[in-house]
Structure formats: structure tokens, C-alpha cells
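Late entry, evening session. Most of the bench is empty. Finally got around to the prediction I had been postponing all week. Sequence below, unchanged from the version circulated by S.P.
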Amino acid sequence: QVQLVESGGGLVQPGGSLRLSCAASGSIFSFYVMGWYRQAPGNQRELVAGISSSGSTNYADSVKGRFTISRDNAKSTVYLQMNRLKPEDTAVYYCNARGFGVPPSEGYWGQGTQVTVSS
């Protein structure tokens, strides 16, 4: 079992920055593939960024060059640094943890944190 707690969301103006954190507990964090997903009203949940246990990363095209995912295995925490935020980045952001080869839907989810980009 893994428990995930997100933090760092809030209201920010277009062009601003936020850093989301996801603290994990309950299992061996370093073994898990970690991901950040988001869901805007009326939309499906979508992958924003992922990071493997070895540190390989992947990003949605819409956030490449603006967002950076990282992990600190010693702190059992994954981060999402979001720069040059746009109104279309507004969504609830969720942290996901899964074993290698396991679909995200069968992994663990945090409760979500709201990010609102608005002037």
C-alpha cells in the first residue's frame, strides 16, 4: 500500500510558477514509477509528466519546456515544477504511483491539488 499526499497548488497569474509536491508513505518509494496527471472540468484525466525509478522522464507535448518532474527518493517525494503557466493549465493535479508495467489506473492516487491560472 502507498499513501500519496499532494501539496503546492493554488492561484497564480499567467506566466507565473508553482511547484507541486507529492509525499509518499507506506512502501518502498524508489521502486515506483511516479506520475503527475491533471483533470480539468469536463475533460478526462491526462498524463502531464512521468518519472521512472531510474529517473527517466516523459512529458505531455503541451507542457514540454515549461514543466519539470523530479524525485527525491531519500524523501519519498516527487515534484512538479511548473513555469510559464497558462490558463489552460488550470486543473486538479493528481499524483500517481505504480509498479513497473502496471497501468496507472491500477496504481495509487493522491487526493489532488487545485491549480488555477488566472489574472
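Two things to note before I forget:
The radius of gyration is 13 Å.
The longest strand covers residues 18-25.
Will write this up properly tomorrow.
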